[in-house]
C-alpha cells in the first residue's frame, strides 16, 4: 500500500508566526493550544508523522487541523463546542419562570414574605407544578439568561402639580427657542457646603484606593452657593453666601440685571419659597425680569442641575477641605476653568420620553 502524501500548512507570514507563538505561550484553552502547536510545527516543516509522535494524537486529527487552518486561518484554532445535552426545561417554561420571578409573592396570595429568594421561588415553582424539579443554580442561570436580576427597589416622587405639562412645555420652549427679546437664565442653589471628607474616584493601583479620614464632625458652619447658568453663552455666574434667603436670591437677580441691562431676563427657577417672596416678585415686575417656575417636583428640568452634578464630581468629590476659604477656592478654580471652555447650551433632552408626554405619568416602570 502506497504511503499517503504529506500534508503541510500553507506558507505563514512573519506576523502569523508571531501570533502563533503568542498563542502557544499564553493560551489557557488546551484545545486552542494543541491546535496552535500543530500548525506551528507543520509550518516549521515537520511531517504529520513527527507531529503525531510528539503530541500523541492521531494523524487524521493533525491533517484536519492543518486543512482547517489553511481554509479559515486563526478561526480554526477556536473549539466549536456542540453545546452539551439538550435543555431539560423548554423556552416556554423559562419565560414563565422569569415572569413569575418579576411578580410579588402577594400576587399569588403569599403574605408571609414580600420578596422572592431563590429557595422560595424554587419551592413556589415546584408547588405550582411549573416545573417538576429544579435546582437553585439552574434557576439563577435561567433568570440571568432571561435578563432578570436582583435589584434594589427605587422610589419615584410623583408630581401633584395639575399644570405640570403646561409648565414643562413652557420651559422646554424657552430652551428650544430662546426669545429674541431677551435671555434665558437657569438659577438654583447648590449645597449645603459644609466641611467634610467627600468620597470620589481616582486612578490608583489595583486594590489600593485612596483613603480619607472618617469623621462625623462638621466644623466651620455651612455655606450656600447661588448660581445662574446663561444658556446663550453656557457660562455660570455664582456667589457663595452664609444664607440662602430671598435677600441673597434678590441680590443675585440684581447682579444679573446689571450684567445684561438692555435685555429681558427669563429666569427658570424651582418653587423654593425665597423665589416666590413678594419682594422678589415686586422687584422682578419692575425690572423686566420674568420668573419661569418649574412644575412641582420637576427640578430635573432645570438645566443648571447637570452643571451642579459636574461641579460636585470634579471640584468636590475626593476632597477634604479644612476651611471654607479652601473649598471656595476649589469651586472658583473649577468655574473659571469651565467658563473658559463654555459653549451655548442647546438640545436639552432631545431624545427623552418627556418630549412625547401629553399627561403626567402616574407610574414609572
UniProtKB/TrEMBL annotation:
User: Which GO MF terms does the UniProt record name?
Assistant: nucleic acid binding
Signal peptide (residue range) = none
Pfam families reported in the protein's UniProt record: DDE_3, HTH_32
Classification via Gene3D superfamilies: Ribonuclease H-like superfamily/Ribonuclease H (3.30.420.10)
Question: Matching SUPFAM superfamilies, A to Z?
Answer: Homeodomain-like, Ribonuclease H-like
InterPro entries reported for this sequence: Homeodomain-like_sf, RNaseH-like_sf, RNaseH_sf, Tc1-like_DDE_dom, Transpos_IS630-like
Domain Tc1-like transposase DDE as annotated: residue spans: 183-324
What is the name of the protein in this document?
Transposase
Annotated source species: Actinophytocola algeriensis
Amino acid at each position: 500500500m502506497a504511503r499517503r502524501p504529506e500534508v503541510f500548512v500553507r506558507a505563514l507570514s512573519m506576523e502569523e508566526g508571531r501570533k502563533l507563538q503568542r498563542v502557544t505561550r499564553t493560551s489557557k484553552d488546551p484545545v486552542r493550544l494543541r491546535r496552535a502547536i500543530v500548525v506551528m510545527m507543520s509550518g516549521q516543516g515537520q511531517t504529520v508523522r513527527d507531529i503525531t509522535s510528539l503530541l500523541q494524537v492521531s494523524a487524521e486529527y493533525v491533517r484536519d487541523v492543518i486543512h482547517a487552518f489553511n481554509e479559515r486561518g486563526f478561526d480554526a484554532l477556536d473549539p466549536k463546542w456542540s453545546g452539551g445535552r439538550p435543555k431539560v426545561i423548554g423556552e416556554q417554561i423559562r419565560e414563565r419562570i422569569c415572569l413569575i420571578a418579576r411578580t410579588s409573592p402577594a400576587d399569588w396570595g403569599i403574605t408571609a414574605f414580600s420578596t422572592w429568594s431563590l429557595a422560595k421561588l424554587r419551592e413556589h415553582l415546584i408547588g405550582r407544578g411549573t416545573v417538576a424539579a429544579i435546582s437553585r443554580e439552574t434557576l439563577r442561570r435561567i433568570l440571568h439568561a432571561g435578563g432578570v436580576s436582583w435589584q434594589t427597589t427605587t422610589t419615584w416622587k410623583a408630581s401633584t402639580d395639575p399644570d405640570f405639562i403646561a409648565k414643562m412645555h413652557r420651559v422646554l420652549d424657552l430652551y428650544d427657542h430662546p426669545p429674541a427679546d431677551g435671555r434665558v437664565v437657569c438659577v438654583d442653589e447648590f449645597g449645603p457646603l459644609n466641611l467634610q471628607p467627600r468620597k470620589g474616584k481616582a486612578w490608583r493601583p489595583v486594590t489600593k484606593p485612596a483613603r480619607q479620614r472618617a469623621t462625623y464632625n462638621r466644623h466651620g458652619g455651612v455655606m450656600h452657593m447661588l448660581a445662574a447658568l446663561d444658556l446663550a453663552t453656557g457660562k455660570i455666574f455664582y456667589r457663595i453666601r452664609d444664607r440662602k434667603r430671598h435677600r441673597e436670591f434678590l441680590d443675585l437677580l440684581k447682579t444679573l440685571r446689571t450684567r445684561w441691562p438692555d435685555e429681558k431676563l427669563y429666569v427658570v427657577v424651582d418653587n423654593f419659597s425665597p423665589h416666590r417672596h413678594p419682594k422678589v416678585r415686586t422687584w422682578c415686575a419692575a425690572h423686566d425680569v420674568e420668573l419661569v417656575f418649574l412644575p412641582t417636583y420637576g427640578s430635573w428640568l432645570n438645566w443648571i442641575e447637570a452643571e451642579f452634578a459636574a461641579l460636585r464630581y470634579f471640584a468636590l468629590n475626593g476632597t477634604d477641605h479644612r476651611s471654607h476659604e479652601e473649598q471656595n477656592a476649589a469651586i472658583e478654580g473649577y468655574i473659571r476653568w469651565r467658563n473658559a471652555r463654555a459653549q451655548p447650551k442647546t438640545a436639552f433632552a432631545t431624545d427623552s420620553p418627556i418630549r412625547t408626554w401629553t399627561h403626567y405619568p402616574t407610574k414609572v416602570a
